[in-house]
Design a protein that fits this description.
The chain has 19 helices and 40 strands. The chain is α+β, with helices and mostly antiparallel strands and 709 residues long. The radius of gyration is 27 Å and the shape is globular. The strands form twelve sheets. It has a six-stranded mixed β-sheet.
Length: 709
């Protein structure tokens, strides 16, 4: 019998490197290890990655050849920028006349502040004619003399005419420095922002190249033949060669790993993911089965880096309680870890005997109102985790679970100071901490227009139980803690899909141009190892900015999950009814494929108008799409062109805002093809035809359309 192959995810954190092994077929967790992150080893963090992999294979009894997929996430790029540990960038501006004026202004990028008192090290040289090899080489010599360790070439409108930047790089190649062109980092207009993004990318390039080479060599030496992938900041992974070209894509990838785990393991389609550590909680949104992504702010300026929209609150499982005037005045931002104190709830009842409450300053300059307990066993911090355990909010087997008696003993001295009982004191602690998180969660729900009745709160991280259950209770939202929450980030790395995004500014884009951008994104993920037959591409056309965006995702191999349980008809109906907030008797099956069932009902509104809300439920009973009012029709691949043309024609709106085609989704085989990002009917139909082109003529197709006002 063949041993099932495994997918390995490794998350390199600031303190520890966590690694997990996941069954490549069932996606079940098989093993997990934790080793100290090897910042000070001669091989850097690469050493810790290899140690973690070795221990993981030993623990699971697998050989290197059993590894079907290997990916790692790292904070190295983020830390390099935060600490100012970057290379000196040599920027070559290109142009004559007005173009020269624009590019010479780019020298001001040397004013970017990396850390307090430390600016981005940048040297500038100008080239009038990029085809003049001698002039280019004089510029490179000047930059090398100024200490440049990496080169960037930038020219106005290079996204349309990249030949100038490419000529500069070709002429500079003999010098052996790492190099990049601004048009290679992004194809969006905006000389200053494009160059700034390229310069920041270049600043971390040498360090990231060295790490990539070490990790690659070590993994190969260990006998792993699966290609090494790296976590991106938008929730996907990329090939190592792509990381060598654009290491900036790894910045902010830490939070992205956790939400990727929530998407793949917890199968969240609509909700908020909260990854809670000891000191803080990272909050991100999943909307219609996709992570919320936006252009990231780096070094205080917006960039063209597409990253997870994550918002951080200084409240975690180890956050300390603040008191004054006989009441709880706040929680955090200081944690027990910062104060160098153990959690009171993890002490034994004997250690907590004869405890008294005192207040301290965790760090110089902090207010002296952080509560601690002085007892027979020493000094302890009262934390969010203590309160959650005292109220029984931490489930059996959770990473943060402790002896309930110890938890109550930890809160009791504080309760006496507050003049109340243990349960009330613990509730007040959680109220104070969770209130800060709720403010951000409510804002993100508004920003992304999530339906609070259907959105779910999912907690990850070792401190999940200290925040998510109480937030769910106080906000009256559905909430749960993710399975294996303490290793949700490396699980996300192990399960992440290869991802690539292509953006082009194309005024008045034709359907041929839109399809070309789609094809480019599809080719990019296939080139990085994604199985071509499983690639999904989401296309968005923004008529206001003339931006055509294609996001392609795919697995490195087609996974057929051997799950022991599939939801039956009754379970799927109940899931749809619960989401629709109605009685199952009022819910009807409207259409379906082998992988999805479409359920709907009717609701009456004022003036006798009728809405037809729809839910798409997969075979596991997970609601994959919510539509407030939709039209559903079934056809076949052969009949789809005629049917879709009619449906789109009937549902297209015309008004002062222009033409607005319906939001269209197609159920095909095991997929939901999301075409809702296209507003023009003709490109929309062209994209629909591209989704159908390789499928059998008699295969069923379900169209779900939402009319836009």
């Amino acid at each position: 019998m063949n041993t099932p192959r495994i997918r390995v995810g490794i998350d390199v954190g600031g303190t520890f490197t966590d690694a997990v092994a996941v069954d490549a077929t069932t996606l079940e967790l098989l093993g997990q290890v934790k080793v100290p992150t090897s910042h000070h080893h001669e091989d850097g963090v690469a050493h810790g990655i290899v140690v973690a992999l070795d221990r993981l294979l030993e623990q699971t009894g697998r050989a290197p050849a059993d590894v079907a997929f290997l990916a790692h996430g790292t904070t190295q790029a983020t830390n390099a920028l935060l600490e100012g540990d970057v290379a000196t960038v040599g920027l070559i501006g290109i142009g004559t006349g007005p173009a020269a004026v624009l590019t010479r202004r780019l020298a001001s990028l040397g004013n970017l502040e990396l850390a307090p008192g430390k600016r981005l090290p940048l040297a500038y040289a100008h080239v009038a004619d990029p085809d003049d090899t001698a002039e280019v080489r004089r510029a490179v010599e000047q930059l090398k003399g100024d200490g440049a360790q990496v080169l960037v070439a930038s020219q106005p409108f290079s996204v349309d005419r990249p030949e100038g930047e490419q000529a500069v790089l070709d002429a500079a190649r003999p010098y052996g420095l790492p190099m990049t062109a601004a048009h290679e980092i992004t194809s969006l207009y905006g000389l200053h922002k494009r160059t700034r993004t390229a310069v920041v990318n270049a600043a971390i390039l040498p360090r990231m190249l060295a790490t990539a080479d070490l990790v690659d060599a070590s993994i190969t030496k260990a006998g792993v033949i699966a290609p090494l992938m790296v976590m991106r900041c938008d929730g996907g992974v990329m090939a190592l060669d792509e990381m060598r070209r654009r290491p900036l894509l790894t910045v902010l990838s830490g939070p992205a790993a956790g939400v990727a785990g929530a998407l793949m393991q917890e199968r969240v389609s609509e909700g908020v993911f909260l990854e809670t550590g000891g000191t803080s909680t990272d909050i991100s949104v999943v909307r219609r089965g996709k992570v919320a992504v936006r252009h990231a702010t780096i070094l205080g300026r917006t960039s063209y880096l597409n990253a997870l929209d994550v918002r951080t609150v200084g409240v975690g499982g180890g956050s300390m309680v603040r008191i004054g005037g006989g009441r709880v005045t706040g929680v955090g931002p200081r944690s027990a870890h910062i104060a160098g104190l153990p959690y009171a709830c993890f002490a034994s009842p004997d250690q907590l005997r004869d405890a008294t409450v005192d207040t301290v300053r965790p760090l110089d300059g902090d207010p002296a109102d952080y509560a601690v307990i002085d007892a027979e066993g020493g000094r302890f911090a009262v934390t969010m985790t203590c309160a959650a355990n005292a109220l029984g909010r931490v489930p059996e087997g959770d990473f943060a679970r402790c002896d309930p008696e110890s938890a109550r003993a930890a809160i009791a001295p504080l309760a006496a100071v507050l003049g109340t009982d243990v349960a009330t004191a613990a509730t007040r602690i959680l109220d104070a901490g969770v209130a800060q998180v709720r403010t951000v969660v409510d804002a993100m729900i508004r920003d992304y227009r999530l339906d609070k009745d259907t959105a779910v709160l999912v907690g990850g991280g070792g401190g999940a139980a200290s925040v998510t259950p109480h937030l769910a209770l106080t906000s009256e939202m559905e909430g749960r803690i993710a399975r294996n929450n303490e290793v949700i980030s490396p699980i996300g790395v192990a399960l992440a899909l290869v991802r690539e995004q292509v953006e082009r500014i194309v005024p008045g884009a034709t359907q041929e141009q839109i399809l070309a951008v789609r094809a480019e994104a599809e080719r990019a993920v296939v080139a990085q190892g994604a199985a071509a037959e499983g690639v999904e591409v989401e296309v968005t056309v923004d008529p206001q900015t003339n931006t055509v965006r294609a996001v392609a995702t795919g697995a490195t191999e087609l996974r057929t999950q051997d799950r022991s349980h599939r939801a039956d008809d009754t379970e799927r109906l109940r899931a749809a009814a619960a989401s629709l907030k109605t009685d199952p008797a009022a819910v009807h099956v409207l259409a379906g494929t082998a992988a999805h069932t479409v359920y709907g009902t009717e609701t009456r509104r004022r003036l006798r108008s009728t809405r037809r809300p729809v839910r798409i439920v997969d075979v596991d009973g997970v609601v994959r799409h919510h539509a407030a009012d939709a039209r559903v029709e079934t056809t076949t691949v052969a009949g789809a062109p005629e049917v879709l043309a009619r449906l789109v024609g009937e549902a297209t709106s015309y008004g002062d805002g222009g033409v607005r085609a319906p939001a269209l989704r197609l159920l095909l085989g095991s997929r939901i093809a999301d075409l809702s990002g296209v507003l023009d009917p003709q490109p929309l139909l062209a994209l629909a035809h591209s989704e159908l082109r390789t499928r059998a003529a008699d295969e069923p197709v379900v169209a779900v359309l939402e009319v836009r006002s």
